[in-house]
């Protein structure tokens, strides 16, 4: 089983366990909303534009709410559990969905009381770091200050403005991923630098 499928399955198991009304780290979304979002990504490509483009966000939201109205929560989770559309192709699912489902799995885990970071395999840690290092410039393009990512165990990546103040962000690969995906306050990382710059980076809108 690929890491994308493992994270998808683990997330769906957690959704089934928590039910439709549990909180997530996605602002304003319950687990029901998150399940509808994931189903929309794969089964309603006509509505995907609003995920990234604000002018289309209204249509995307209406389709997402329509999925909730049409499908009871267990049924919607069932749709998410099986890859849809082009993601039925294992290589594409792995390429696109490994980080997507990892982050959303953590969005649910870390919104619950007393969460702790998971112990990940060395292979998965290395894969996550490879993707983070390759995508740091894009994920940190809205950072208000320069960012230097330091992976515990080895590895450095840069993002944000190329000149001026820099903040050093240190942690395991998975924690750096959560930070770069805009979950700064829920990532177990150490930030070093000018205190004002650190707070500006913590509050910034990051991610893809």
Description:
With 208 residues, the chain is α+β, with helices and mostly antiparallel strands. It folds into two domains: 3-109, no CATH class; 123-203, Nonspecific Lipid-transfer Protein, Chain A (2-Layer Sandwich), CATH 3.30.1050. It is built from nine helices and four strands. The protein has helices at 3-18, 31-43, 49-52, 57-70, 73-81, 90-109, 122-139, 173-180, 195-203; strands at 146-151, 156-159, 166-171, 190-192. It has a four-stranded mixed β-sheet with strand order 2-1-3-4.
Q: What is the number of strand segments?
A: 4
Structural class: alpha+beta
Mean pLDDT: 93
What is the distance, rounded to the nearest whole angstrom, between the alpha carbons of the first and last residues? 26 Å
Q: Roughly how many Å is the radius of gyration?
A: 17 Å
As laid out across the biggest beta sheet, the strand order is 2-1-3-4
Number of helices: 9
How would the global form be characterised?
globular
Proportion of residues in β-strands: 5-15%
Number of domains: 2
InterPro entries: CHP03085, DinB/YfiT-like, Maleyloyr_isom
């Amino acid at each position: 089983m690929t890491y994308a499928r493992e994270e998808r399955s683990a997330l769906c198991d957690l959704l089934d366990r928590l039910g439709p009304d549990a909180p997530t780290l996605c602002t304003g979304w319950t687990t029901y909303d998150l399940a509808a979002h994931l189903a929309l990504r794969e089964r309603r490509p006509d509505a995907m534009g609003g995920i990234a483009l604000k002018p289309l966000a209204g249509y995307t939201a209406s389709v997402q709410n329509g999925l909730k109205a049409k499908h009871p929560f267990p049924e919607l989770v069932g749709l998410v559990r099986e890859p849809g559309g082009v993601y039925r192709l294992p290589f594409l699912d792995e390429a696109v969905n490994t980080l997507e489902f990892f982050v959303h799995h953590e969005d649910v885990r870390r919104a619950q009381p007393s969460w702790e970071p998971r112990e990940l395999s060395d292979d998965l840690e290395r894969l996550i770091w490879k993707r983070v290092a390759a995508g740091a410039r894009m994920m940190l393009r809205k950072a208000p200050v320069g960012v230097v990512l330091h992976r515990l165990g080895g590895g450095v990546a840069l993002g944000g403005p190329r000149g001026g103040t820099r903040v050093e962000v240190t942690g395991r690969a998975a924690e750096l991923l959560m930070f770069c995906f805009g979950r700064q306050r829920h990532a177990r990382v150490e930030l070093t630098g000018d205190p004002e710059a650190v707070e500006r980076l913590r509050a910034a809108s990051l991610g893809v």
